[in-house]
Amino acid sequence: MAEMDQKSVPHVLLFPFPLLGHVNPLLQLAELLCLSGLSNVTFLTTKHHHHRLLSFTDARTRFSSFPAFRFETISDGLPDDHPRSYTHIIDIFTGVRSVMEPSFRELLFSNYFQSVNRPPVTCIISDGLMSFPIGVAKELGIASMDFRGTGASFLWCCFRHLNMVEAGELPFKDADMDKLITSIPGMESFLRCRDLPSFLRGCRGKVLDDSLKIVSSSHDLRPNATIINTFEDLEAPILAEMRPHFPKIFTLGPLHALLSTLHSGRSISSNNSLYEVDQNCITWLDSQQPNSVVYVSFGSIVMMTHTQMLEFWYGLVNSGKRFLWVIRHDFVIDKDESFQVPADLTSETKERGYIVEWSPQEEVLAHPAVGGFLTHSGWGSILESMMAGVPMLCWPQIGDHHTNSRFVSDVWKVGLDMKDTCDRLTIEKMVNDLMDTKRDELMRSMEEISQLARKSVGKGGSSYGNLEALVNRLIAYPILF
């Protein structure tokens, strides 16, 4: 390597979209590249998320063993006290377009990331929600890759949006949400209107146009390759439909499990969390019976009203099951200082429940006391649940959740779908279905999927081999692009 011309030495820049669920998987990929022998890796994220990484994770320590790795920051254009939650997603997109995009161009064109000991950037791996890094890469004559922390199925839905419009399936012409969508190859027999991504469900006029611009932007500028956090055996039929339309697809998931493989099996479960983790919940789980606890978490950005929270609370309590529930400080939309939890819920929760602001999720799912996962159906949570072998009850809300939950329940059959409902009777029934009535059949499917997931990230597995192929391409650039 020392004898190579500096311009031929690979230098990979990773650039996530500024939301927690997007920062984590790209940081995992950055560590995978470092562990695979790429010495020059730069991780560019907002000052806000960089501060949280340093405050709540051991990222600085983990990456200290890679001398040529660099954390770099960029402004998102938002004030320090901005909540940066999904309810303010328009602010985030505005900041990306008005501040991050011109700043990113300036950094790349000024060779900011190059130094005496560091070669210029040879490849940009950017989040699929941002197309401008691909345009910058093309102008500079370097490689670009589109990173997707979501599943292939969701990406395929987005890719086919124009076909849905041409077929008259978008926008919806009636209120029949159970009508099948027939213009997405590989999904014709089971995907309904209600299973489409949230920004396509019921959108009309300008709202639909704006949503389509977001999901289709990366197809206007074609990257050299697409990296997806999935594994071949999970989404093989959809990947087969996609590959003729994409230059190159690398499936590397589950990323967190592949990272564990490269760490010789050591889990790094909570170390990328951008929230302060409450480890006391593990002590509580230690005192519970095997498969007796429902783990409840709706991720880092989903919010609900007080009314919805009470419905879930009563549903969980009335199910008679023990539960561990993650309730973030910003979880409730309509905050009311006068709100008080009903006394019966308080007493029942003390008896059978445990509530934390944030948990070490991978560790929780792997705990023998956990028998089911009530989730928002975020892709990272689904993969973590599959690796742990824990069946799911899905309550999808935004983004890819609605599509994911349909695959969980009707394709992979490793969980139940509770979309478009939020009442205590339904929640109580479906929690009992998850933990008792339908548990055996869900576990049979889950055990098979878990085995395939573990195989994919092991030596000789598809994701393991794809990581090697990706690294070889990055080292050989520009020959293999």
From TrEMBL:
GO MF term list: quercetin 3-O-glucosyltransferase activity; quercetin 7-O-glucosyltransferase activity
Broad EC category: transferase
Enzyme Commission number, as recorded: 2.4.1.-
Keyword Endoplasmic reticulum among UniProt keywords: no
One Pfam family hit: UDPGT
Keyword terms, alphabetized: Glycosyltransferase, Transferase
Family affiliation: Belongs to the UDP-glycosyltransferase family.
Name of this protein: Glycosyltransferase
Organism: Aquilegia coerulea
